[in-house]
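Translate sequence into structure tokens.
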Amino acid sequence: MKGRLVEFISKITKEVHEEIEPKTKVHYHARLQKALVNSAVYFNLKGVSEYKIFYDERKGKIDIVWFDNDNSLVTAIEIDSSLREKSIMKLLTSNALYKVQVYYGNKSEGIIQKFRDTYDTEKEVIFIHFPLNLLRSKDVGDIEQHTLF
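Result follows.
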């Protein structure tokens, strides 16, 4: 299932990017989160967003989780535009069978590998890198009001 899961999530990340407008980080994250929650049914699972978790003596939320019919946590997914230690910690703390990090930032493969080697030494997290150049939400208003656009 791991290969099928990676292929499926990669496909969804591309589809969401192609369909969103404006192409902002906030818009992409929200649409991808919703798409992945709704996509759980393709694996006969139930998707939930903003799943509360206690990790590293803190409270946090995992972006998306998928449960089976027995309410066992099968998949935990974090979506980030930057390499975030807390995202990896949340995933590693979860008891999900599949822990997935979707990273859409533009760091080099060397930096990504160093990050993974530091925070996921056992390579428990499935890392999907889909580099995108997205706008910040505050920049969209400026672009839309510019007379050249």
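Note: Confidence is low (pLDDT under 50) at residues 143-149.
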